[in-house]
TrEMBL record:
This is Polysulfide reductase NrfD. It comes from Snuella sedimenti. The chain crosses the membrane at residues 27-46, 66-85, 97-118, 147-166, 178-201, 221-242, 254-274, 300-320, 329-352, 372-394. Its main location: membrane. It is found in: Cell membrane.
C-alpha cells in the first residue's frame, strides 16, 4: 500500500516537473509538439491513401522508415556501453551518464516500434504480429525474433532505471542484487537485438548485397560508434542547460568508446569495399549502384559520397588524443559521425539491397514528402519522450524531487 502511495506521489511530482520549466524548455517542447502534429497529419494521409502515398513500390519495398528503424536499433543497443561499465565493472565515472543513456535507449526503441507501424501501413494490421491471434510463425521467422528482442529490451531499459529512480525518489539506495542481474541480461540482450536485425537481412537469399558475414559485426561497430556519439552530444546539452553536472572525465571515457568503435567500423567498411570491387561478380551490382551509379541511375551517389568523407574525417579527429580532448572538436566529430552512420546504415544499406531487382530491373527510390513528414514526426516523438524522461530523472538525481511523508 505504501509503495502505491509513493508511486502516485512520483507520478504527481513528475507531471509537475515536466509541465514547468524555463522559456527555452517550453519553446523546445512546443517545437517538438508542432513537428509531431505535422507528422500525424502526414500519417493520416498515408492511412487514407495507403502506402501508395510513399515512394516505396513493389520493387523497393523498404525505404525511409526501415532505414531509420535499422539505425535506431543501434542507438538503442549503444546504452549497453554505459550499462556494462557502471553496473558490471563498477566504474563510477560512467555512473553519471548511465541513466541518460538508458533514457535514450527507451526513446530510440519507441521510435523503432513507431517506424515499424508506419512501414506496415497502419496499426490495424498489428494483430498479425500478436502470438495466438495472428500468424506469429515463431521460431521460423526472423521477424518474430526481432519483435521479441525489441520489446524485451524495451522492458529491461524501462524497469531497471525505474527501480533505481523509485528508490532514489524515496532517499534510499537501490539494492544491487535486484538490478545487477537485469543489467547483466541487458548486456547480452543489447548485442542480441542488433545481431537479430542483421540476421533478418542476411537471411534474404535474393538480396546478395546483404549476404555478408561482416554485416552483424559491422552493425555492432556502427551502433557502438553512433549511439555513444549521440550520448556525448546529449550530455553536452544537459550539462549546459541543467543543474545536472557531467564531469569532463565521463565524456572523455565515452569518447574513447566512440573512437575505438569508429575505427573498427571504418576497417570493416574498407574490407567490404575490397570484397565488392577487387574481384567483382554480378552480385556486386548493388554496390556499384550505391558508389558509382548503374546504367545512368545514381540517386544515392550524393548520399554515400557525403557519408564516407564525414566518416573518415570524424574517425581521424577522434583518433588524435589532443583533438579528442578539445571538446569543441569532439562535439563536432561526434555530430558528423552520427550523420555519416545514419546515411551509411540507412540509405546506404537498405535501398541498394533492392537495386537491381532479382530480374535485373533498376527502379530507384526517392522518399515522398509524406514519408519525410512522418519520419520527422517520429523523431520528434522520440525527442519528446526523452526530454520528459531526462527531466524527471535529473530532478530525482539532484535531489529536487523527493517523496514527502
Amino acid at each position: 500500500m505504501r509503495r502505491l502511495k509513493v508511486f502516485r506521489s512520483l507520478v504527481k511530482d513528475s507531471l509537475d516537473t515536466i509541465t514547468h520549466g524555463s522559456r527555452k524548455y517550453h519553446l523546445w517542447m512546443a517545437l517538438l509538439t508542432f513537428i509531431m502534429l505535422v507528422g500525424m497529419y502526414c500519417y493520416s494521409i498515408q492511412l487514407e491513401q495507403g502506402l501508395s502515398a510513399t515512394g516505396m513500390t513493389d520493387r523497393v519495398s523498404w525505404g525511409l522508415y526501415i532505414s531509420n528503424f535499422t539505425f535506431l536499433v543501434g542507438v538503442a543497443a549503444a546504452a549497453v556501453m554505459l550499462v556494462m561499465p557502471t553496473y558490471v565493472l563498477k566504474d563510477v565515472d560512467f555512473k553519471q551518464a548511465v541513466l541518460i543513456g538508458e533514457g535514450l535507449a527507451v526513446a530510440a526503441l519507441i521510435m523503432c516500434l513507431a517506424f515499424v507501424v508506419a512501414d506496415m501501413g497502419g496499426p490495424s494490421v498489428l494483430w498479425h504480429m500478436i502470438p495466438g491471434i495472428g500468424v506469429f510463425n515463431f521460431p521460423n521467422s526472423m521477424l518474430t525474433w526481432d519483435v521479441l528482442v525489441l520489446n524485451g529490451y524495451l522492458f529491461i531499459n524501462i524497469t531497471i532505471p525505474f527501480y533505481i529512480l523509485f528508490k532514489h525518489y524515496q532517499g534510499k539506495e537501490a539494492k544491487s542484487n535486484v538490478y545487477v542481474p537485469g543489467a547483466f541480461l541487458s548486456v547480452f540482450w543489447a548485442v542480441g537485438i542488433h545481431l537479430v536485425t542483421a540476421f533478418l537481412y542476411q537471411g534474404l537469399q535474393a538480396r546478395p548485397f546483404w549476404n555478408n558475414a561482416l554485416l552483424g559485426p559491422r552493425f555492432l561497430a556502427s551502433a557502438f560508434a553512433a549511439g555513444p556519439a549521440l550520448i556525448i552530444l546529449v550530455l553536452a546539452i544537459i550539462r549546459t542547460f541543467t543543474a545536472f553536472k557531467i564531469e569532463d572525465k565521463t565524456i572523455k571515457k565515452i569518447a574513447m568508446v566512440v573512437t575505438v568503435a569508429a575505427q573498427i567500423n571504418l576497417i570493416m567498411l574498407v574490407s567490404e569495399l575490397f570484397k565488392e570491387f577487387y574481384a567483382p561478380t554480378h552480385h556486386s551490382e548493388s554496390a556499384y549502384y550505391l558508389f558509382f551509379g548503374l546504367h545512368g541511375k545514381d540517386a544515392l551517389l550524393p548520399w554515400i559520397w557525403t557519408a564516407i568523407p564525414l566518416n573518415v574525417l570524424a574517425t581521424v579527429l577522434l583518433t588524435f588524443h589532443k583533438l579528442r580532448n578539445n571538446f569543441k572538436v569532439l562535439f563536432f566529430a561526434c555530430f558528423i559521425l552520427f550523420v555519416a552512420i545514419w546515411i551509411e546504415k540507412g540509405f546506404g544499406l537498405i535501398v541498394p539491397g533492392f537495386i537491381p531487382g532479382p530480374y535485373g530491373k533498376i527502379a530507384e527510390y526517392t522518399p515522398t514528402l509524406i514519408e519525410i513528414g512522418v519520419t520527422l514526426g517520429i523523431w520528434a516523438l522520440g525527442a519528446f519522450v526523452f526530454t520528459i524522461l531526462a527531466k524527471t530523472a535529473i530532478g530525482i538525481e539532484i535531489g529536487k524531487l523527493r517523496y514527502k511523508n
